[in-house]
Amino acid sequence: MRVRPGRPSEAAELTALALRSKAHWGYDEAFIAACRDELAMAPADIGPRRTAVAEEDGRVLGFTTLEGRPPVGVLGMMFAEPDALGRGVGRLLFGHVVEEAGRIGLARFTIDADPNAEGFYLGMGAVRIGVTPSGSVPGRELPLLEFTLTSRRALAAGSNPPS
Q1: What is the mean pLDDT of the segment spanning 17-33?
Q2: What is the pLDDT of residue 79?
Q3: CA separation (Å) from 103 to 6, 52, 69, 89, 98?
Q4: Residue 36 CB: number of other CB atoms within 10 A?
Q5: Taking the CB of residue 5, how many other CB atoms lie within 10 A of it?
Q6: 128 CB contacts (<8 Å, ≥6 apart)?
Q7: In which band, very low, low, confident or very high, does the pLDDT at 161 lie, cut at 50, 70 and 90?
Q8: What domains are defined for the chain?
Q9: What's the alpha-carbon Rg for the chain, to the nearest Å?
Q10: How many CB atoms lie within 10 A of CB 56?
Q11: Do strands 72-80 and 108-112 pair parallel, antiparallel, or not at all (unpaired)?
Q12: Do 69 and 109 meet the contact criterion of CB atoms below 8 Å apart?
């Protein structure tokens, strides 16, 4: 498995992957439809959102975006194919985000986490700093997390976050 830059030609494929990944948590069709615009990737978004793809044998297993400018960024999206969960896709992509964040000079980045993914991010060294309104569902709040690049010491030390 490797991480590479996303390609504009993959925008529709990444959108479909994000929707499948979100649906994995048991959300109904109405909820997924409400999230569709927020989870959509356009070809013009791929580069500016620093999209990275986890790939194995030519198959896209997941992707992430890292947005913003120093000193603070945002892990905008991170999704894995449901049949690839537990195989290290998330850990690989998160490690890539941390390295990229350091490379571009971010001191920290925030994450508007799906409640089902909060444990993963906490295990990777993020901390909960509050809640944030959902961009898709009025009245819904999401865990607001923050990862500081000094937290990457814990990641490098081999902590075993949940997959």
Answers
A1: 94
A2: 97
A3: 18, 14, 11, 21, 9
A4: 13
A5: 10
A6: 118, 122, 143, 144, 145
A7: very low
A8: 2-156 (3.40.630.30)
A9: 15
A10: 14
A11: parallel
A12: no
Query: Can you tell me the distance from the alpha carbon of 141 to that of 89, in angstroms, rounded to the nearest whole number?
Result: 26
- In the structure encoding, which two tokens stand for residue 35, read together? 């999230």
Q: CB of 129 within 8 A of CB of 144? A: yes
Residue 107 has pLDDT above 60, yes or no: yes
Find the mean pLDDT for residues 63-86. 96
Instruction: Give the chain's mean pLDDT.
Output: 91
pLDDT of residue 138: 84
Under DSSP, the state recorded for 57 is T
**What integer pLDDT is reported at residue 151 of this predicted model?**
52
Residue with tokens 């479909």: 16
Residue 109 CB neighbours (<10 A): 24
